[in-house]
Prior knowledge:
This protein is α/β, with parallel strands linked by helices. The chain has 2 domains: 3-120, Response regulator (Rossmann fold, 3-Layer(aba) Sandwich); 133-234, Arc Repressor Mutant, subunit A. It is built from 8 helices and 12 strands. The protein has helices at residues 11-23, 34-44, 60-70, 84-92, 105-126, 165-176, 184-192, 201-214, and strands spanning 3-7, 27-31, 48-52, 75-79, 97-100, 139-142, 145-148, 153-156, 159-161, 182-183, 224-227, 231-234. The chain has a 5-stranded parallel beta sheet, with helices on both faces. Strands 6-7-8-9 form a 4-stranded antiparallel beta sheet, with helices on one face. It has a 3-stranded antiparallel beta sheet with strand order 10-12-11. Helix 2 runs parallel beside helix 3 (60-70) and helix 6 (165-176) packs across helix 8 (201-214).
Amino acid sequence: MKKVLVVDDDGNLVEAIRYNLQKEGFLVVTADNGILAIELVRREKPSIIILDIMLPGMDGFEVCRIIRKEFLIPIIILSAKTEEVDKVLGLELGCDDYLTKPFSMRELIARIRTIQRRMQSNELEARPNRIERNAPISNLQFSEIGVDISGHKVLRNGKPIKLSPKEFDLLLLLMQSPGRVFQREYLIERIWGYDYEGTARTVDVHIRSLRKKIEINPGTPEHLMTVHGYGYKFELD
Length: 237
């Protein structure tokens, strides 16, 4: 049974989310503040986190930043804020999706199911007996960047780099086809799913974050290259 952590100080909303997720077969744990949320993440190891931004004491952005330093658990941010800058900030901090209040429970569950399908797909791709492959690929290594697919780890010069689940998926997809140019729309469909309602801006934010983590000089990248007017590619040299 998948465990979901719901973090929100609105008790009525939390109970509504709990009720609907339990009907869908999820195990739900809750927190009404950021400090408790971080404690529960470390103790309960949830599969998905639903995180409100407007929390007492420590806001959701700070909670997201702290969690992302330690875990790769998918995070869906809930917020009454509709400004693009807030969505971009959430994405840059490593959240996987952003849902604006008010929202329907059906939409929230659909977003969770999308993340589940993507996680399951990643697990299948990491299995050595995947039918599409003649020879199993468990590791990728290009120059100083290495990916341990089964271990879900990325290393630069042998040192581990902490990536969000979306960043890992995006980097892996690009590295699996070096030199191939991917359109932003295609990346959205492959990484975020067909029913994702965000824009191509999401891809740009994640590429910028990846460059900061894997490039020697993010301003003049050597690997994650922009093909203007089209999309992105992973360059070997």
